[in-house]
Amino acid sequence: MHFSELGMRRRDGAPWYAELVLTRFEDIHGLRVVGDVYDITARREVERALKEAVEHERELNTLKTRFVSMVSHEFKTPLAAILMMVGVMERYGERLTLEKRADKLRGIEAQVAHMNQLLEDVLTLARTEAGTLPFTPEADGTTRFCRAQPG
Fold it and tell me: For the whole model, what pTM was predicted?
């Protein structure tokens, strides 16, 4: 058996793809070849769509990898600040005034709040992607405000 794929054009100019299958056999009349032609346009379209889907998945995976890297960096920054402030308090805590200690503690609280907000943002993105983010629009009077006549 021999297979060959051919790109063809219909009379109207539309492309189509054919698979030519040649089969050799021998009978009482000698060596013979039979050829069959199959329209494989649909199969080619499916293959093309699958290739595009795979490429799209690769792009999404690249974006997710970049996102995870960025989020990791964003979490490391406040953690480093927290560790630095804790280190200062451990080493110099007795020498710090109450005001300076309170300032360091407020700094730690601010960094923890920042990390919490980052985490909430990541969770919101995850819910959005999963389609589980609730959508509850509320009337806020904007339409009435826009229709109001000045004066």
Answer: 0.54
- Structure-token pair, residue 128: 């959005």
Q: Please report the beta strands in the chain, taking only residues with DSSP state E, as ranges in sequence order.
A: 2-9, 15-27, 30-39
Range of the domain at 105: 57-129
CA-based end-to-end distance of the chain: 88
101 within 8 A of 93, measured Cβ to Cβ: yes
Cα torsion 99, 105, 107, 113 to 10°: value is -140
Sheet with 2-9, side-by-side order of all strands: 2-9, 15-27, 30-39
- 91/32 Cα distance (integer angstroms): 94
Q: pLDDT tens-digit profile of 42-52?
A: 999 999 999 99
**Are residue 121 and residue 88 in the same domain, yes or no?**
yes
Q: Are residues 73 and 114 in the same domain?
A: yes
Report the amino acid identity of residue 60.
L
